[in-house]
Design brief:
Oligomer: single chain
Number of strands: 11
Radius of gyration: 26 Å
CATH class of the largest domain: Alpha Beta
Length: 398
């Protein structure tokens, strides 16, 4: 090896080591995906809450249920409180009948999710917004024996309240709304209710972010979360739903993303690259073999994406697909159009229309249909196709 080659080799090694060092020391990007999985320590996981339940209910048995409620409640002798916390819940008719029978026997069900539309209990939710552009959200409980503070949340999210409840049976326990720059309330609505049914009770709550790591760890927000859970009967066993979780269904978008998401696999990949570099320099210099024509590897990313999409489609999880598409279009509006999505109102439609090249009527049409999707527990393939068509038309107005 001549002196010039040694210099080039040294430069390559120094640059390679520098790249590895920078990759190692730089902070990892925060994953804001709404997971709600008890094992996840990301902002929207529920690791903190699940571990603190033992302290909140020290004399209560707490079990993780990783099977569908329909299967778990086949045993009619089950007694306790069933807790569901997720971005969106899609109970089938027969499955919800099992929950009704479970509560009717004297048990409780706690559900915290953004949209709740249940004809059996005469319940319906809708988005809550205001006419003010600059505003902050608040949450408050009605019970003066609990915390009387108004709690805040500093990130954009889909805020809903109950537009329809059975006033003869349901009891309002908490509310949410928005405050403008002058500390005046511009809108508010009920977001936490108790609904007796038979010998037991349903508890419905429309702000699941209150039970995530990000919210609980920002003092004094934990008081709000603990106050809500204080309504649960500590004498009953607790069944923690681990089946209906958005984060449980997430997968890497590509094989390379999966490879780099693991620290061990990532370093193995880097070492392999370094080994290949040495092989090319020394082996190629020594033998100078002819270079055969090698057909490039096919890009499997599209096939991988289609496989994942087909898994959802074949299982008829159209609502899950729709929710993911809605999440992505909101993120597109925030990052590409630079329009906050904390409030979906007339000003929002105007800003989005002016920055996206769409007419205001088309923007309103898209978000009206998104609201319809949010209110449904299940949607048809045709509804999913219509949503996709509206989103593609929005992103490509010309």
């Amino acid at each position: 090896m001549d002196k010039k080659t040694k210099i080039y080799l040294g430069v390559f090694i120094v640059i390679f080591i520098a790249i590895i060092y920078v990759e190692y020391v730089k902070p990892k990007p925060i994953n804001w995906f709404p997971s709600y999985v008890a094992k996840h320590k990301m902002p929207y996981g529920t690791y903190v809450l699940r571990n603190e339940l033992d302290n909140l209910f020290p004399e209560t048995t707490i079990d993780n249920i990783d099977i569908p409620p329909y299967v778990f409640l086949q045993d009619s002798t089950k007694k306790g409180t069933y807790i569901f916390i997720d971005d969106g819940l899609n109970f089938g008719e027969e499955e919800f009948d099992k929950l009704l029978a479970f509560v009717n026997r004297g048990n409780d069900v706690f559900i915290s999710t953004h949209g709740v539309n249940i004809d059996t209990l005469n319940l319906k939710t809708e988005p809550i917004s205001s006419v003010a552009y600059e505003q902050s959200v608040f949450f408050k409980l009605y019970n003066n024996k609990l915390s009387t503070k108004e709690f805040k949340f500093d990130r954009s999210f889909y805020n809903t309240s109950f537009s329809k409840i059975d006033t003869a049976h349901a009891i309002a326990l908490g509310k949410t709304g928005y405050i403008n720059e002058d500390d005046k309330r511009v809108s508010e609505g009920i977001n936490f209710i108790k609904h007796p049914f038979g010998k037991g009770n349903f508890y419905f709550h429309t702000f699941p972010e209150a039970f995530t790591n990000y919210y609980i760890l920002k003092s004094p927000n934990h008081e709000y979360s603990a106050s809500i859970l204080s309504y649960l009967d500590s004498a009953k066993p607790i069944f923690w739903d681990a089946y209906y979780k958005s984060g449980k269904k997430t997968m890497a978008a590509s094989p390379m993303q999966y490879l780099l998401s693991s620290k061990s696999l990532k370093w193995a990949y880097y070492i392999a690259l370094l080994g290949i570099l040495f092989f090319v320099i020394f082996e190629g210099k020594r033998k100078q073999r002819y270079i055969p024509i090698i057909t490039p590897l096919k890009n499997q990313t599209l096939a991988f994406t289609r496989t994942i999409a087909n898994m959802y489609y074949e299982k008829s999880e159209h609502k899950n697909i729709a929710e993911h598409k809605i999440t992505y279009i909101l993120d597109y509006i925030r990052t590409k159009l630079h329009v906050p999505t904390i409030a979906i109102n007339d000003n929002f439609y105007t800003y989005v229309a002016s920055r996206s090249g769409n007419s205001k009527d088309n923007v309103v049409k898209l978000f009206d249909y998104i609201d319809e999707i949010h209110q449904k527990n299940n949607i048809s393939p045709q509804e999913l196709i219509k949503l996709n068509t509206l989103i593609e038309a929005f992103k490509n107005p010309n």
